[in-house]
Amino acid sequence: MKYIISWVLRFIPRKFIQLFAHRLIKIYSIFLTGNKVYCPVCDHSFRHFLPYGRLTPRENALCPSCLSLERHRLMYLYLKNETSFFTEKPKLLHIAPEYCFIERFEKHLGDQYITADIESPLAKVKMDLHDIPFEDNTFDAVFCNHVLEHVKDDVRCMQEIRRVLKPTGFALCQSPQRYDLATTYEDASITDPREREIHFLQDDHLRIYGRDYGTQLEKSGFTVEPVNLIEKLGLKESQRMALPLEEIIYVCRK
Ligand SMILES: [Zn+2]
User: Residue span of the signal peptide, if any (predicted)?
Assistant: First the structure.
């Protein structure tokens, strides 16, 4: 299974995966009935999660019911436990919307919920993050996860997110990060796709952020609060929900 998933991620265009993969995986989920792991996003338990990843697939990562990964479950827990997201109805701009969240957010927020992306078939508004087509101070929340490592000018995109955020709002802009790197790493001279994958995790990543990611976000004017929810939840809960081994949530405010 792990090699099939790795092959699909490498060779099938992402938009086809987003449109069709969940149907096949849902069918497979009947073979994973059990109680060892729990997904807080869809409220289902399984024997284990599915493996996921391109280079070396990670065991126990993908929820077969809602397709959440470790980082999605962590973000969902942050919203549920640490914010008023689910008790109020914030106006949300969700950039590059993750499949596991769309239906849930839509049900909760109705027309307060706007999905946007430059190419994702899951998004309703087509837009370039360098030039967001909304007025200043429009949204109570902006989510833009695993996007900034792909864009040409990441600081400009962060500034755009900050611009459309209300002064009372917050943004979550998580990106792949290597905690063993002190500073963010870019090298345009590496052009071989395989080499780029080794250096930047994916060949279409323009950079890999280091431990300075919070400082990078602050370059756009954001005030950034790092939250270590994994530590707060403890090892047992983190393992039961297969959360990331290490991930700081950077809560960005105006
Ligand atoms: Zn799930």
Answer: none
Do residues 129 and 160 touch, judged by C-beta distance below 8 A? yes
Residue environment code for 52-77, b if the CB has 16+ CB neighbours within 10 A, otherwise e: bbeeebbeebbbbbbbbbbbbbbbbb
Residue 144's beta-bridge partner residues?
Answer: 95
The string of pLDDT tens digits covering residues 74-104 is 999 999 999 999 999 999 999 999 999 999 9
CA of residue 66 to ligand 1 center, whole Å = 4
Split at pLDDT 50, 70, 90, the class of 145 is very high
Pairing of strands 165-172, 113-117: unpaired
Task: Tell me the CA–centroid distance for residue 204 and ligand 1, in Å.
Answer: 27
Gap from CA of 101 to ligand 1 centroid (Å): 10
Mean pLDDT of 116-142: 95
Q: How far is the CA of 68 from the centre of ligand 1 (A)?
A: 5
Classify the phi-psi angles of 177: left when phi > 0, otherwise alpha if psi is within -120 to 50, otherwise beta.
Answer: beta
Q: Note whether 105 and 76 are within 8 A (CB).
A: no
Share the mean pLDDT of the chain: 91
**Full set of structural domains in the chain with CATH:** 2-68 (no CATH), 71-253 (3.40.50.150)
CA proximity to 108, closest of 91, 83, 124: 91
Q: Is the dihedral of CA 126, 130, 133, 135 positive or negative?
A: positive
Rounded to the nearest angstrom, the distance between the alpha carbon of 64 and the centre of ligand 1 is: 7
